[in-house]
Each structure stands twice: as structure tokens, then as C-alpha cells.
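Repro:
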Amino acid sequence: MTLLERLHSVSEAQKVLERVLPNVLRKTRVPLLDSVSYISAEDVVAGMDLPPFDRSVLDGYAVRWIDISSASSESPSILRLRGSISVGEEAETFLGPREAFEVQTGSRIPEGSNTVVPREYAERRGDTILVYKSFPPGYGVSPRGEDVRENETILRHGDVISEWHVGMLASLGLSHVSVWDKLRVVVASTGDELVEPGQGGRRGFFASTGYAVASYLNERGAHTVYKGVLGDDPSKIESFIAGNLESWDAIVLTGGTSVGTRDYTAKVIRRLADDYVHGVALTPGRPGVFASIEGKPVIGLSGMPVAALSQLIAVWDPAYRRIVGKRDPWEPVIVGVMAKRYKAREGMTNIVFSRACRNVIKGLLWIDPLKVTGSGVLSVLVRSNVFMVIPEEVTGLDEGETIEARVTGPIGRCSQA
């Protein structure tokens, strides 16, 4: 019996990574401006209300609504001007009947007022103002806690930090945030037939899979370095693993993961591994290796790019997300309707790269699975703008059936409604 006649479930492969990833994942604190794209390692709650006091959202006059409720151009309300309140002024003031304070955008409004009259609807005459229009209660006022309430969670453990989070954290006075440090991953390709892009003219095959894998990991929270082609040499493969275990958090090799005589990646990893899965019930991507060597993840991916990326989507992504608490996939998830029937491989998790478009007449998002003639056909990745992860228990999808898909590119209108 060959090794790949015993296929492990995708969840079994994920568990290998889930057992070893905690050994290499680290939490760190980074300056706020450096935190974008990191995953938060803690819940962050607001330490105060935001805004911390009732404030004006425009330049004008803070008043009591009851004092201007009948104001009009023919019969203005006349109020005594008590003074002005500048932005940042902390002194608390109280507004009495038929009084007003001049305020600026961002000024604290005095206690007792509940409306701000825009400057263009009032006229100042010495120590009085004439208000020529009535405004409803609350107009021009941002009440205390309107944006955020004290103790409200504003950043959750597992959230990918965005520039929007940075703005909110800064507004609460925070300068640093606790994050999961980026995993340091080293990638290399195997295969005597491979040459590096830019070398070799038209001879051989360019090492596209290693480049695609390194790019995928970088876009999803890792710091990845590609080290080139090792060839089909078990001693070089073993030396590469041994030489990088200490200085890198994870090692990824592409190619050599099937059961042929020259598939040395799988053989070397198996000999060195403490925990090991070879062969996954995944299409494309059956010949994958997921292992732990000296407490660090070592992964052998298919040499075919579509299969290798499918292995990362199905195994690496969910395992990593579970460990760091990230609840959602990296890609946006949409719900669409199958444009045609798709027959899935029974007993296998299916990664289906597809083309989605918007049917503007029917108001639906159509998903059309792309025909894949082999796991090395890179054009399917470029032509697709979504992909589906179909669980092993699902044998197919009917035309018109709704399905979730993950978005990888822009979705336009269907060429034909």
C-alpha cells in the first residue's frame, strides 16, 4: 500500500499544526502606527467615554432649546451672551434661562444647554445675540459617550488591526497595542527541473509555486522569505530543514510530496518528524505533508501551484486562525447562487476556484466554477475572483443553490443577464 492510499481528513492535518503552532507564536506590544495588519492579541476596552463630555459639532452658540423654540426671522429670540468656550477649555460652566455661550467645533458645551445654534442663524449685538431660527433639542451637540462608552470593547482578540482601529485607539490615548507577532516562515522549492525566474531562458520550469506560496503567507500575517530551489537531493533538503529550525518559526517546502522515487521531501520530513500527516483528503492538494520537527511546523506542499495554495487554504489558514483567535477567513465572504451544477469529489474537501458576477436584473450574485484541467494551471487563479471550500460530506452543488464564497478579486456585472 502506498502512503497516499491512506488519506487523512483535512481536520487531522489541521490538528498537527494546532499542536505545534503554540510553540512558535509570540505576543508582543507594538507602537500604534506599526500595528496595521497585525492580529490583536487582546481585547481592548475603552477607558473613558468618547467624547468625554457633551461637545459642539459646529461653530455657533450653545443655548437652551426652550429659549429658541419660537425663534423666527420676523420674531428672533433675544439671549444674553455669557461669554465663549474655546476648544480644550476644561472649566465647567452652567447656562441659565435665556442665556447663551459662544462655542466652537469641539468645544465643551455648558451644563444646562441642549442645542447649538449655527453662527449664521444668529446675530451678535454687544452682550446679546438674536436667534432667527429654531433648532430641535440636541441639534449641533455630540453627547458624551455618543462614539464609545467607557468599558465598551473596541478591539477584539483576533481582529486584524486596520487604520480605523488605529484612529479609535489613538482617540482614547493609547500609544501601543498587544499583537501576535508575525510568524517568520522560510520557503524553498524542490525539483531538479526548476529554475528561478529571470534565469535559464526557456529551459525547464520556473519555480512559480514557491513564489505563490511565499506571497500567500505574507498577505496573511506572516513574514516570509523565499530561499530558492534546492533540487531533488535528500541531503540538501535535510540540511535546509536542520539549518533553519533554530532561526525560523516554520519551514515550508514545495514539491516532492507524492510517493514517487524522487519525492524526497515527504521521505525526509517523515524520517525527522515527531508528529506527521502525509496525504490529505483534499482536491486539489492530496499530496501534502504537515509535520512537527523539534517543536516547529514543517510543511511539504505540492509542487503544483493550485494544489499548494489549496493546501494552505484548507489546512494552514483555519489552524492558524484558531490559534490566534481570528474568527473569520482572511478573504471577505459573500453568498452567491450557483450558475451551474458542480459535482464534488466524494469524501474530499473541494477547493473550487470560480468566477463571480452580479446579475443586475435578477439582483443575484452568480458563481460559476472554473474548469481546472490540472493542479498546475495557474491561469485559473488569475481568472477567478472567488473560491469555495466545499466540505467532504457535500457531494455536489445544484444550479441555483446558494453557497458561501471567499472573494479574491473585484466582482463586476455579468456580461449577459
